[in-house]
Design goal:
about 20% strand, binds zinc ion, about 475 residues, Alpha-Beta Plaits, alpha+beta, single chain, six-stranded mixed beta sheet, five-stranded antiparallel beta sheet, 13 strands
Amino acid sequence: MRTYLDIAAVRIQRYLARTPTLRGRRTASAALVDMRSVAAEALAGTGAWLNAEAGEIDGVVSLELDSPDDVDRVSAVVLRALRRRLPGAEFQVVWATDLDYVTAYAEQMRPTILSGRSRVDLPTVAELPLAALCRLCGIDPAVTTATLDDAERNVCADCVERESWRSLSASRTGERRLASRLNREPVNGGFEALAGMGRRETRIAVIHADGNRIGAFFRQLANIPAERLRAPENAHLTRDKLALELSKATFEALAEATMSVRGIPGRSLPLILHVLGGDDVLVSVPADHAWQFARALLAGFNERMSRLVRGLDLEVEISAPTMSAAMVFARHDESFTTIVALAESALARGKRAGAGRSSWLCFHDLTTEGRHDEGSVVPLHELKQRQDELTELARAPRSFRENLALALADGGPEAALAHSRRVGVTAGTPFLPRRGSDPAREAEHTPAGMDGDSPTRLGLDTALRIARWW
Ligand SMILES: [Zn+2]
Protein backbone atom coordinates (compact mmCIF):
# COMPACT_ATOMS: atom_id res chain seq x y z
CA MET A 1 0.00 0.00 0.00
CA ARG A 2 1.13 3.53 -0.74
CA THR A 3 0.26 6.81 0.96
CA TYR A 4 -0.61 9.88 -1.10
CA LEU A 5 -1.06 13.45 0.10
CA ASP A 6 -2.51 16.16 -2.17
CA ILE A 7 -2.32 19.83 -1.27
CA ALA A 8 -4.24 22.00 -3.72
CA ALA A 9 -4.93 25.70 -4.02
CA VAL A 10 -8.72 26.01 -4.33
CA ARG A 11 -10.90 28.70 -5.90
CA ILE A 12 -7.92 29.43 -8.13
CA GLN A 13 -9.79 31.62 -10.64
CA ARG A 14 -10.99 33.91 -7.90
CA TYR A 15 -7.57 33.98 -6.31
CA LEU A 16 -5.97 35.03 -9.60
CA ALA A 17 -8.61 37.65 -10.27
CA ARG A 18 -8.18 39.46 -6.97
CA THR A 19 -5.49 41.85 -8.24
CA PRO A 20 -6.49 44.42 -10.85
CA THR A 21 -3.18 44.21 -12.69
CA LEU A 22 -2.32 41.63 -15.34
CA ARG A 23 1.16 41.48 -13.89
CA GLY A 24 -0.25 40.58 -10.50
CA ARG A 25 -2.33 37.82 -12.11
CA ARG A 26 0.61 36.50 -14.07
CA THR A 27 2.85 36.34 -11.02
CA ALA A 28 0.07 34.53 -9.15
CA SER A 29 -0.23 32.03 -12.05
CA ALA A 30 3.52 31.55 -11.81
CA ALA A 31 3.27 31.02 -8.06
CA LEU A 32 0.71 28.25 -8.64
CA VAL A 33 3.09 26.56 -11.06
CA ASP A 34 5.95 26.98 -8.60
CA MET A 35 4.02 25.21 -5.84
CA ARG A 36 5.68 21.94 -6.81
CA SER A 37 9.23 23.29 -6.56
CA VAL A 38 8.42 25.19 -3.35
CA ALA A 39 7.12 21.92 -1.88
CA ALA A 40 10.07 19.91 -3.20
CA GLU A 41 12.46 22.23 -1.42
CA ALA A 42 10.52 22.06 1.81
CA LEU A 43 10.41 18.25 1.66
CA ALA A 44 14.11 17.69 2.31
CA GLY A 45 14.47 15.30 5.23
CA THR A 46 10.74 14.74 5.76
CA GLY A 47 10.51 11.24 4.25
CA ALA A 48 8.07 12.44 1.59
CA TRP A 49 8.62 13.05 -2.13
CA LEU A 50 6.74 14.33 -5.19
CA ASN A 51 4.24 11.78 -6.53
CA ALA A 52 5.39 10.74 -10.00
CA GLU A 53 1.97 9.32 -10.90
CA ALA A 54 0.22 12.70 -10.82
CA GLY A 55 0.25 15.08 -13.77
CA GLU A 56 1.74 18.56 -13.69
CA ILE A 57 -1.29 20.40 -12.51
CA ASP A 58 -1.00 24.09 -11.69
CA GLY A 59 -1.97 24.69 -8.10
CA VAL A 60 -1.64 21.08 -6.95
CA VAL A 61 1.18 19.45 -5.02
CA SER A 62 0.82 15.67 -5.03
CA LEU A 63 3.13 13.83 -2.64
CA GLU A 64 3.92 10.30 -1.69
CA LEU A 65 4.80 9.46 1.92
CA ASP A 66 6.58 6.62 3.67
CA SER A 67 3.76 6.16 6.13
CA PRO A 68 0.30 7.58 6.92
CA ASP A 69 1.72 8.59 10.32
CA ASP A 70 3.69 11.32 8.53
CA VAL A 71 0.65 13.11 7.05
CA ASP A 72 0.26 15.79 9.72
CA ARG A 73 3.94 16.56 10.02
CA VAL A 74 4.56 16.71 6.25
CA SER A 75 1.49 18.77 5.46
CA ALA A 76 2.41 21.31 8.16
CA VAL A 77 5.90 21.71 6.68
CA VAL A 78 4.64 22.06 3.10
CA LEU A 79 1.78 24.40 3.98
CA ARG A 80 4.15 26.71 5.84
CA ALA A 81 6.36 26.98 2.73
CA LEU A 82 3.39 27.45 0.37
CA ARG A 83 1.83 30.07 2.61
CA ARG A 84 4.96 32.22 2.29
CA ARG A 85 4.74 32.12 -1.50
CA LEU A 86 0.93 32.47 -1.80
CA PRO A 87 -0.15 34.34 1.34
CA GLY A 88 -3.78 34.90 0.27
CA ALA A 89 -4.55 31.49 -1.21
CA GLU A 90 -6.85 28.87 0.24
CA PHE A 91 -5.42 25.33 0.37
CA GLN A 92 -7.17 22.00 0.61
CA VAL A 93 -5.48 18.93 2.04
CA VAL A 94 -6.52 15.31 1.32
CA TRP A 95 -4.68 12.05 1.79
CA ALA A 96 -5.28 8.34 1.29
CA THR A 97 -3.55 4.97 1.44
CA ASP A 98 -4.24 2.66 -1.50
CA LEU A 99 -2.75 0.50 -4.26
CA ASP A 100 -2.02 3.29 -6.71
CA TYR A 101 -2.78 6.96 -7.18
CA VAL A 102 -5.74 6.62 -9.56
CA THR A 103 -7.46 4.25 -7.13
CA ALA A 104 -6.60 6.40 -4.11
CA TYR A 105 -7.91 9.48 -5.87
CA ALA A 106 -11.10 7.92 -7.25
CA GLU A 107 -12.04 5.84 -4.20
CA GLN A 108 -11.00 8.07 -1.33
CA MET A 109 -9.57 11.51 -2.08
CA ARG A 110 -12.19 12.75 -4.51
CA PRO A 111 -15.15 11.55 -2.42
CA THR A 112 -13.56 13.32 0.56
CA ILE A 113 -13.30 16.56 -1.42
CA LEU A 114 -16.85 16.31 -2.81
CA SER A 115 -18.37 15.68 0.59
CA GLY A 116 -16.54 18.71 2.00
CA ARG A 117 -14.52 16.62 4.46
CA SER A 118 -11.11 17.73 3.24
CA ARG A 119 -8.96 19.82 5.52
CA VAL A 120 -8.79 23.49 4.56
CA ASP A 121 -5.96 25.88 5.28
CA LEU A 122 -7.05 29.52 5.14
CA PRO A 123 -4.96 32.72 4.96
CA THR A 124 -3.99 34.12 8.34
CA VAL A 125 -6.48 36.61 9.62
CA ALA A 126 -4.98 39.96 10.62
CA GLU A 127 -4.69 40.54 14.31
CA LEU A 128 -5.80 44.15 13.99
CA PRO A 129 -9.47 44.02 13.06
CA LEU A 130 -9.51 47.72 12.20
CA ALA A 131 -6.53 47.63 9.86
CA ALA A 132 -7.04 49.39 6.54
CA LEU A 133 -7.73 47.22 3.51
CA CYS A 134 -5.09 46.63 0.86
CA ARG A 135 -5.02 49.42 -1.73
CA LEU A 136 -4.54 46.96 -4.57
CA CYS A 137 -6.97 44.08 -4.07
CA GLY A 138 -9.23 45.53 -1.38
CA ILE A 139 -9.67 42.02 0.03
CA ASP A 140 -7.14 41.50 2.80
CA PRO A 141 -5.95 43.95 5.45
CA ALA A 142 -2.88 45.97 4.55
CA VAL A 143 0.13 44.73 6.49
CA THR A 144 2.94 46.69 4.90
CA THR A 145 3.74 49.37 2.34
CA ALA A 146 5.11 48.98 -1.16
CA THR A 147 6.19 51.41 -3.85
CA LEU A 148 3.84 51.00 -6.79
CA ASP A 149 3.68 53.39 -9.73
CA ASP A 150 6.09 55.66 -7.85
CA ALA A 151 3.74 55.99 -4.90
CA GLU A 152 3.90 54.45 -1.46
CA ARG A 153 0.80 52.32 -0.82
CA ASN A 154 -0.58 50.16 1.95
CA VAL A 155 -0.87 46.62 0.66
CA CYS A 156 -1.62 43.09 1.87
CA ALA A 157 0.88 40.24 2.11
CA ASP A 158 -0.43 38.56 -1.01
CA CYS A 159 -0.12 41.66 -3.19
CA VAL A 160 3.38 42.35 -1.88
CA GLU A 161 4.39 38.83 -2.86
CA ARG A 162 2.85 39.22 -6.33
CA GLU A 163 4.41 42.61 -6.96
CA SER A 164 7.82 41.73 -5.61
CA TRP A 165 8.19 38.58 -7.68
CA ARG A 166 10.62 39.52 -10.42
CA SER A 167 11.83 36.25 -11.87
CA LEU A 168 8.63 35.63 -13.78
CA SER A 169 10.45 34.66 -16.96
CA ALA A 170 12.09 31.75 -15.15
CA SER A 171 8.75 30.18 -14.27
CA ARG A 172 7.37 27.42 -16.42
CA THR A 173 3.84 28.77 -16.48
CA GLY A 174 1.41 27.17 -18.92
CA GLU A 175 1.65 30.35 -20.96
CA ARG A 176 5.43 30.10 -21.25
CA ARG A 177 5.27 26.41 -22.11
CA LEU A 178 2.72 27.16 -24.82
CA ALA A 179 4.75 30.07 -26.20
CA SER A 180 7.93 28.03 -26.43
CA ARG A 181 6.09 25.07 -27.93
CA LEU A 182 4.59 27.24 -30.68
CA ASN A 183 7.64 29.46 -31.02
CA ARG A 184 5.70 32.59 -30.09
CA GLU A 185 5.90 35.26 -27.40
CA PRO A 186 3.40 35.88 -24.57
CA VAL A 187 1.18 38.93 -25.19
CA ASN A 188 3.00 42.05 -24.11
CA GLY A 189 0.63 44.60 -22.62
CA GLY A 190 -2.51 43.02 -21.23
CA PHE A 191 -6.14 42.94 -22.33
CA GLU A 192 -5.98 46.10 -24.39
CA ALA A 193 -3.18 44.66 -26.53
CA LEU A 194 -5.02 41.35 -26.75
CA ALA A 195 -8.29 42.99 -27.86
CA GLY A 196 -6.31 44.99 -30.42
CA MET A 197 -5.49 41.77 -32.28
CA GLY A 198 -9.12 41.29 -33.25
CA ARG A 199 -11.24 43.14 -35.79
CA ARG A 200 -13.37 44.79 -33.11
CA GLU A 201 -10.49 46.17 -31.17
CA THR A 202 -11.93 46.67 -27.74
CA ARG A 203 -13.54 43.30 -27.08
CA ILE A 204 -12.19 40.14 -25.54
CA ALA A 205 -13.65 36.80 -24.55
CA VAL A 206 -12.67 34.91 -21.42
CA ILE A 207 -13.04 31.16 -21.77
CA HIS A 208 -13.21 28.78 -18.83
CA ALA A 209 -13.04 25.17 -20.00
CA ASP A 210 -13.21 22.10 -17.84
CA GLY A 211 -13.50 18.32 -18.29
CA ASN A 212 -16.85 16.56 -17.86
CA ARG A 213 -17.13 13.50 -15.66
CA ILE A 214 -13.40 13.19 -15.02
CA GLY A 215 -14.06 11.85 -11.54
CA ALA A 216 -16.45 9.19 -12.86
CA PHE A 217 -13.90 8.24 -15.51
CA PHE A 218 -11.16 7.75 -12.92
CA ARG A 219 -13.53 5.82 -10.70
CA GLN A 220 -14.52 3.46 -13.54
CA LEU A 221 -10.88 2.87 -14.40
CA ALA A 222 -10.00 2.29 -10.77
CA ASN A 223 -12.53 -0.54 -10.69
CA ILE A 224 -10.90 -2.42 -13.56
CA PRO A 225 -8.24 -4.93 -12.53
CA ALA A 226 -4.81 -3.56 -13.41
CA GLU A 227 -3.84 -6.44 -15.72
CA ARG A 228 -6.81 -5.71 -17.98
CA LEU A 229 -5.53 -2.18 -18.60
CA ARG A 230 -2.32 -3.26 -20.19
CA ALA A 231 -2.69 -4.29 -23.77
CA PRO A 232 0.86 -5.29 -24.78
CA GLU A 233 1.05 -2.74 -27.60
CA ASN A 234 -0.15 0.03 -25.26
CA ALA A 235 2.10 -0.65 -22.34
CA HIS A 236 2.77 3.06 -21.95
CA LEU A 237 -0.88 3.68 -21.12
CA THR A 238 -0.84 2.17 -17.69
CA ARG A 239 -3.14 3.51 -15.05
CA ASP A 240 -0.19 5.14 -13.30
CA LYS A 241 0.11 7.55 -16.16
CA LEU A 242 -3.50 8.51 -16.75
CA ALA A 243 -3.39 11.72 -14.76
CA LEU A 244 -0.35 12.70 -16.81
CA GLU A 245 -2.14 11.77 -20.04
CA LEU A 246 -5.08 13.98 -19.07
CA SER A 247 -2.80 17.00 -18.57
CA LYS A 248 -1.04 16.22 -21.82
CA ALA A 249 -4.31 15.98 -23.77
CA THR A 250 -5.36 19.39 -22.41
CA PHE A 251 -2.04 20.99 -23.33
CA GLU A 252 -2.00 19.46 -26.82
CA ALA A 253 -5.60 20.53 -27.48
CA LEU A 254 -4.72 24.02 -26.27
CA ALA A 255 -1.72 24.22 -28.61
CA GLU A 256 -3.85 23.03 -31.52
CA ALA A 257 -6.63 25.52 -30.74
CA THR A 258 -4.05 28.31 -30.54
CA MET A 259 -2.73 27.39 -33.98
CA SER A 260 -6.27 27.44 -35.35
CA VAL A 261 -6.50 31.18 -34.66
CA ARG A 262 -5.43 32.74 -37.92
CA GLY A 263 -4.76 36.23 -39.17
CA ILE A 264 -2.87 37.52 -36.13
CA PRO A 265 0.23 39.36 -37.33
CA GLY A 266 3.54 39.19 -35.48
CA ARG A 267 4.99 36.61 -33.15
CA SER A 268 2.62 37.11 -30.26
CA LEU A 269 0.41 34.33 -28.88
CA PRO A 270 -3.23 35.18 -29.75
CA LEU A 271 -4.25 34.67 -26.11
CA ILE A 272 -3.47 35.23 -22.46
CA LEU A 273 -3.42 31.97 -20.53
CA HIS A 274 -4.36 32.43 -16.88
CA VAL A 275 -4.72 28.85 -15.63
CA LEU A 276 -3.74 25.50 -17.05
CA GLY A 277 -4.19 22.65 -14.62
CA GLY A 278 -5.11 19.09 -15.52
CA ASP A 279 -8.33 19.49 -17.47
CA ASP A 280 -8.91 23.06 -16.31
CA VAL A 281 -8.20 26.01 -18.63
CA LEU A 282 -8.82 29.73 -18.10
CA VAL A 283 -7.83 31.79 -21.11
CA SER A 284 -8.60 35.15 -22.76
CA VAL A 285 -8.72 35.67 -26.54
CA PRO A 286 -9.75 38.50 -28.90
CA ALA A 287 -13.57 38.31 -29.10
CA ASP A 288 -13.86 37.50 -32.80
CA HIS A 289 -11.55 34.50 -32.45
CA ALA A 290 -13.33 33.04 -29.43
CA TRP A 291 -15.73 30.64 -31.19
CA GLN A 292 -13.06 29.19 -33.43
CA PHE A 293 -10.67 28.79 -30.51
CA ALA A 294 -13.16 27.28 -28.07
CA ARG A 295 -14.54 24.80 -30.62
CA ALA A 296 -11.04 23.66 -31.53
CA LEU A 297 -10.08 23.30 -27.86
CA LEU A 298 -13.11 21.18 -27.00
CA ALA A 299 -12.97 19.05 -30.14
CA GLY A 300 -9.22 18.50 -29.70
CA PHE A 301 -9.58 17.41 -26.09
CA ASN A 302 -12.54 15.12 -26.83
CA GLU A 303 -10.73 13.47 -29.69
CA ARG A 304 -7.59 12.88 -27.62
CA MET A 305 -9.55 11.42 -24.74
CA SER A 306 -11.51 9.03 -26.92
CA ARG A 307 -8.27 7.95 -28.60
CA LEU A 308 -6.80 7.36 -25.14
CA VAL A 309 -9.75 5.19 -24.10
CA ARG A 310 -9.60 3.24 -27.36
CA GLY A 311 -5.86 2.78 -26.79
CA LEU A 312 -6.54 1.13 -23.43
CA ASP A 313 -8.19 -1.67 -25.37
CA LEU A 314 -10.59 -2.51 -22.56
CA GLU A 315 -13.04 -5.37 -22.57
CA VAL A 316 -15.53 -3.19 -20.73
CA GLU A 317 -17.19 -0.12 -22.16
CA ILE A 318 -16.01 3.17 -20.64
CA SER A 319 -17.10 6.47 -22.10
CA ALA A 320 -14.26 8.93 -22.58
CA PRO A 321 -14.48 12.23 -20.72
CA THR A 322 -15.31 15.33 -22.74
CA MET A 323 -14.72 19.03 -22.22
CA SER A 324 -17.20 21.91 -21.91
CA ALA A 325 -16.63 25.63 -21.68
CA ALA A 326 -18.17 28.92 -20.64
CA MET A 327 -17.34 32.01 -22.69
CA VAL A 328 -17.90 35.56 -21.52
CA PHE A 329 -17.57 38.35 -24.09
CA ALA A 330 -16.66 41.71 -22.61
CA ARG A 331 -14.96 45.02 -23.14
CA HIS A 332 -11.22 44.83 -22.49
CA ASP A 333 -11.56 47.19 -19.53
CA GLU A 334 -14.34 45.22 -17.83
CA SER A 335 -13.43 44.01 -14.34
CA PHE A 336 -11.69 40.66 -14.61
CA THR A 337 -13.18 39.61 -11.28
CA THR A 338 -16.68 40.12 -12.70
CA ILE A 339 -15.91 38.21 -15.90
CA VAL A 340 -14.33 35.30 -14.05
CA ALA A 341 -17.23 35.06 -11.61
CA LEU A 342 -19.73 35.02 -14.52
CA ALA A 343 -17.76 32.36 -16.41
CA GLU A 344 -17.53 30.26 -13.27
CA SER A 345 -21.25 30.41 -12.58
CA ALA A 346 -22.11 29.74 -16.25
CA LEU A 347 -19.98 26.60 -16.16
CA ALA A 348 -21.54 25.44 -12.91
CA ARG A 349 -25.06 26.14 -14.22
CA GLY A 350 -24.45 24.12 -17.37
CA LYS A 351 -23.17 21.18 -15.34
CA ARG A 352 -26.06 21.36 -12.88
CA ALA A 353 -28.49 21.36 -15.80
CA GLY A 354 -27.42 17.80 -16.49
CA ALA A 355 -25.27 18.67 -19.45
CA GLY A 356 -22.47 16.54 -18.02
CA ARG A 357 -22.07 13.91 -20.68
CA SER A 358 -21.77 15.76 -23.94
CA SER A 359 -19.58 18.68 -24.80
CA TRP A 360 -21.24 22.09 -24.78
CA LEU A 361 -20.50 25.81 -24.72
CA CYS A 362 -22.30 28.33 -22.56
CA PHE A 363 -21.82 31.90 -23.71
CA HIS A 364 -22.72 35.25 -22.25
CA ASP A 365 -22.20 38.54 -24.06
CA LEU A 366 -21.64 41.32 -21.54
CA THR A 367 -21.31 43.85 -24.34
CA THR A 368 -25.00 43.49 -25.26
CA GLU A 369 -26.63 41.52 -22.45
CA GLY A 370 -26.95 42.46 -18.82
CA ARG A 371 -24.85 40.98 -16.07
CA HIS A 372 -27.82 39.10 -14.72
CA ASP A 373 -28.60 37.31 -17.95
CA GLU A 374 -28.27 33.56 -17.88
CA GLY A 375 -26.34 33.19 -21.13
CA SER A 376 -27.13 30.51 -23.72
CA VAL A 377 -25.99 26.90 -23.83
CA VAL A 378 -25.28 25.19 -27.13
CA PRO A 379 -23.93 21.66 -27.70
CA LEU A 380 -20.62 21.38 -29.55
CA HIS A 381 -21.99 18.83 -32.04
CA GLU A 382 -24.70 21.28 -33.03
CA LEU A 383 -22.19 24.04 -33.73
CA LYS A 384 -20.41 21.61 -35.99
CA GLN A 385 -23.57 20.52 -37.78
CA ARG A 386 -24.73 24.09 -38.31
CA GLN A 387 -21.30 25.52 -39.03
CA ASP A 388 -22.03 26.56 -42.63
CA GLU A 389 -25.38 28.10 -41.76
CA LEU A 390 -23.84 30.07 -38.90
CA THR A 391 -21.05 31.29 -41.17
CA GLU A 392 -23.66 32.40 -43.69
CA LEU A 393 -25.59 34.26 -40.99
CA ALA A 394 -22.41 35.89 -39.65
CA ARG A 395 -21.57 37.10 -43.18
CA ALA A 396 -24.94 38.83 -43.59
CA PRO A 397 -24.76 42.59 -43.01
CA ARG A 398 -24.80 43.56 -39.34
CA SER A 399 -27.78 45.87 -39.89
CA PHE A 400 -29.75 42.93 -41.32
CA ARG A 401 -28.96 40.80 -38.26
CA GLU A 402 -29.93 43.61 -35.91
CA ASN A 403 -33.24 44.20 -37.68
CA LEU A 404 -33.92 40.48 -37.78
CA ALA A 405 -33.36 40.27 -34.03
CA LEU A 406 -35.80 43.17 -33.54
CA ALA A 407 -38.42 41.54 -35.77
CA LEU A 408 -38.06 38.27 -33.88
CA ALA A 409 -38.34 39.98 -30.49
CA ASP A 410 -41.40 42.00 -31.57
CA GLY A 411 -43.40 39.59 -33.71
CA GLY A 412 -41.86 36.14 -33.29
CA PRO A 413 -40.70 33.75 -36.05
CA GLU A 414 -43.45 34.88 -38.47
CA ALA A 415 -42.25 38.46 -38.34
CA ALA A 416 -38.62 37.39 -38.71
CA LEU A 417 -39.52 35.37 -41.79
CA ALA A 418 -41.51 38.27 -43.25
CA HIS A 419 -38.55 40.60 -42.68
CA SER A 420 -36.15 38.16 -44.39
CA ARG A 421 -38.44 37.94 -47.42
CA ARG A 422 -38.89 41.70 -47.59
CA VAL A 423 -35.13 42.36 -47.77
CA GLY A 424 -34.39 39.20 -49.76
CA VAL A 425 -31.77 37.77 -47.37
CA THR A 426 -32.30 34.14 -46.39
CA ALA A 427 -29.37 33.65 -43.98
CA GLY A 428 -31.68 33.57 -40.94
CA THR A 429 -34.29 31.21 -42.37
CA PRO A 430 -32.59 27.88 -41.48
CA PHE A 431 -32.92 28.85 -37.81
CA LEU A 432 -36.67 29.45 -37.98
CA PRO A 433 -39.21 26.68 -37.27
CA ARG A 434 -40.14 24.76 -40.37
CA ARG A 435 -43.68 25.17 -41.63
CA GLY A 436 -46.06 22.46 -40.45
CA SER A 437 -43.64 21.12 -37.88
CA ASP A 438 -44.45 20.46 -34.25
CA PRO A 439 -43.64 23.72 -32.50
CA ALA A 440 -42.70 21.92 -29.27
CA ARG A 441 -40.04 19.84 -31.01
CA GLU A 442 -38.80 22.82 -32.91
CA ALA A 443 -38.63 24.95 -29.82
CA GLU A 444 -35.24 26.11 -28.79
CA HIS A 445 -33.50 23.47 -26.74
CA THR A 446 -32.96 23.94 -23.05
CA PRO A 447 -29.85 22.82 -21.19
CA ALA A 448 -31.97 20.24 -19.37
CA GLY A 449 -32.87 18.55 -22.64
CA MET A 450 -29.31 18.51 -23.81
CA ASP A 451 -27.74 15.24 -24.60
CA GLY A 452 -25.29 14.18 -27.26
CA ASP A 453 -27.91 12.08 -29.00
CA SER A 454 -31.14 14.00 -28.59
CA PRO A 455 -32.28 16.11 -31.51
CA THR A 456 -31.89 19.78 -30.65
CA ARG A 457 -32.46 22.71 -32.86
CA LEU A 458 -30.61 25.95 -32.68
CA GLY A 459 -33.16 28.77 -32.70
CA LEU A 460 -32.77 32.10 -34.45
CA ASP A 461 -32.33 34.08 -31.25
CA THR A 462 -29.31 32.00 -30.14
CA ALA A 463 -27.95 31.82 -33.68
CA LEU A 464 -27.97 35.62 -33.94
CA ARG A 465 -26.09 35.91 -30.65
CA ILE A 466 -23.50 33.42 -31.86
CA ALA A 467 -23.17 35.14 -35.24
CA ARG A 468 -22.12 38.38 -33.55
CA TRP A 469 -18.64 36.98 -32.85
CA TRP A 470 -18.60 33.91 -35.12
ZN1 LIG B 1 -3.92 42.93 -1.63
